[in-house]
Amino acid sequence: MNLKIIVAISAVLLLSGCGSSGAWGWYVIDPRTATGQENIYFLVSGFWATIQLSVIAAFISMILGLVIALPGMSSNRWVRLPPRVYVEFVRAIPLLPMLFWVFYGLPVILQSLGININIDAFWGAIITLAVSDSAFTAEIYRSGIQSINKGQTEAAKTIGLNYRQTMRYVILPQAIRRILPPLANQFIYIVKMSAFASVIGMQELTRRANELVVTEYRPLEIYTLLVFEYLVLVLVISFFVRSLERKMGSDESR
Amino acid sequence: MKNDSFVITIKKLNKWYGSFHALKDIDLNVALGERIVICGPSGSGKSTLIRCINSLEQHNSGTIVVDGREMIDSKAVHAIRAEVGMVFQQFNLFPHLTILQNLTLGPMKARGLSRAEAEDRAMTYLERVRIPDQAQKKPAALSGGQQQRVAIARSLCMEPKIMLFDEPTSALDPEMISEVLDVIVDLAEDGMTMICVTHEMGFARRAADRMIFMDYGEVIETGPPNEFFDAPKSERCKLFLSQILQH
What is the DSSP code (8-state) at residue B5? Predict the structure, then answer.
């Protein structure tokens, strides 16, 4: 239903654009010409890097987030403090400066410590996306877990379960249904934020569009295609998330 | 009487919530097999007291000894919880698990029983609370009375020495109260040591060996049900009983 509306609106926008012949020059990505095909292929081949970047970063962020969220809910304030500080600190740093810091700054620190690890654009972008996202993922976990009635933890305690068992068998299976929708939201956010990786030279969707704009000088058409590339990616993700949510019973009204 | 004849020994127990003094120098000894009913106005500390017995609330001073073990560290807490079952006002069943899974989780994960043993045991106790046919359903498909009986069975599956009931019928519709109380009376007749916080005075007369009346975090009056109901000594207890027995 939603998909149909989006496609319809997009089509109207696109067609009206094509119609006003003065501003648009679709030849640059016209699939009927050899150059057009080549250009399309060049742009679309950025998908793989964007997907890789987003999926790996999201995966790390999901694990990191849980590792931060669990001690962040401890009743012991000294256990709680480091993860809370981490969340507040990381959440406050904009993605682009953090990306610069990780890509240009971190290797210098590592080198001064005698660690010779080369951080390339790919891993620089993944580290940045994962770390910056983990603060938000951690908060998503926290809100999901804390939304589960305290009585559940108490009942688990009284039947002899320890903390790990209580989390694994009682709290997380219930929390995951509430965590999934905002987590998916966050994944879509990562996909979009991965565009920043273009500034450190990562050959993903946005970088490729930029490079083609420089040689072809048709920003309108190329960036329009770029927008649609992201739109398609996000819609596909949304579709999978919806079916996953149905399977997990996230819709508690049913 | 020697200390070790009691399964629960509480001495000079104090509990504060901030500046609110919830329990004031509580002394309580519970003999094996004894059935105690605690009543009193809301906010009098009755729930807090029984929640201290399995460390759902941490006390601030005084000692609690359960089954010969003093509650001093997390190891003792774990051992004590293994001997103490608890039934909550809001049932607190695990909504994502079936009734059977609710019952087998503790025995399998905390006691190390095999699935077959745990399910066997679960069915025994489900029969005891008279709902073996609901085993494969989720808690939400059951009535409140049935859910509370499942909660009782879930506690029994851990084969505790002591059962704590925290207002087990307060969240139930009136027509379901007796089916739950009947199960508890059954347990009492089998010699289970139990402490029950409730305002069901008919039940108290039937099942209790001893009544405890609490107010403002103190034990005001205690005695066998007959004396307690027919000749309460303190003014506060008389007032309370007249208020709840009026209607």
Answer: G
**Angle, alpha carbons B102-B163-B240 (nearest 5°):** 120
Do the bridges between strand B84-87 and strand B162-166 make them parallel or antiparallel, or are there none, so unpaired? parallel
> How many residues are listed for chain A in this entry?
254
Q: Are B128 and B153 in contact (CB under 8 A)?
A: yes
Residue A157 forms contact with B (CB below 8 Å): yes
Give the integer Cα–Cα distance in Å for B40 and B33.
23
User: For the whole model, what pTM was predicted?
Assistant: 0.81
Residue B129 forms beta bridges with which residues?
Answer: none
Higher local confidence (pLDDT), B1 or A125 = A125
Task: Assess contact for B89 and B62: CB atoms under 8 A.
Answer: no
Query: Closest approach of chain A CAs to the CA of B218, in angstroms?
Result: 25
CA distances (Å), origin B32, targets B9, B53, B135, B187, B189? 11, 15, 32, 14, 13
Pairs across A and B, CB distance < 8 A = 60
Helical segments of chain B, H only: 46-53, 74-83, 99-109, 115-128, 144-156, 174-189, 201-207, 225-230, 235-245
ipTM: 0.91
